[in-house]
Amino acid sequence: MLRIVILIAALTAGGAAAWMALAMRGEPAAATAVAPPAPAAVQDVLVAAADLGVTKRLTKENMRWQPWPESALNPAYITRSARPDALETLVGSMVRSRMTSGEPIRDANLAQLRYTVQFAKVGRFDVVDVAVENK
After folding, report:
1. Which of 38, 91, 111, 116 lies 20 to 30 angstroms, CA to CA, from 52?
2. What's residue 59's pLDDT?
3. Domain-embedded: residue 7
4. How far apart are the C-alpha atoms of 69 and 53, rounded to whole Å?
């Protein structure tokens, strides 16, 4: 007889637990459509098109313009809006510190060298004077 009472109590407790679980489930959440985010504003930044080692000279082939989010724009970066002729004017500049492909080119990473060569004859000797100036 005791087994029957325990069985009825267990069934009652199980039924109550199931009823409480169903009651706490609540209504399903309505699906809401999320609008896609607006495209971020971008500017073209001059970046290395290839890995550039120290003393490597810049050419039009190893530089390119790349869209860059304005939120991640550093004032040191060379932008097309600020310097549209940078691709042409930086040709021949020497890299001071290593740059990887896709890394923005900054003036601080470059040495713009200007060479002056003078030839002279002093007595029977030919003299060549080479001056290198960092702009």
Report:
1. 116
2. 92
3. no
4. 26
Beta-carbon contacts of 97 under 8 Å, excluding residues fewer than 6 positions away, are 54, 109
* H or E segment to which residue 18 belongs: helix 2-24
Contact criterion met (CB below 8 Å) for 87 and 130: no
- Asked, for residue 71, whether it belongs to a domain, the answer is yes
Q: Is the pTM of this model over 0.70?
A: no
- Inter-residue contact 86 to 59 (CB < 8 Å): no
- Which amino acid is residue 117, in one-letter code? V
pLDDT digits (tens, 9 = 90+) for 21-44: 877 776 766 777 788 877 888 999
Distance of CA 77 to the CA centre of its chain: 12
What Å distances lie between residue 20 and 17, 23, 28, 34, CA to CA? Answer: 5, 5, 17, 34
- Provide the domain count of the chain: 1
The count of residues in the chain is 135
In the chain, the percentage of residues whose pLDDT exceeds 90 is 42
**pLDDT > 70 in the chain, percent:** 87
Pairing state between β 125-134 and 113-122: antiparallel
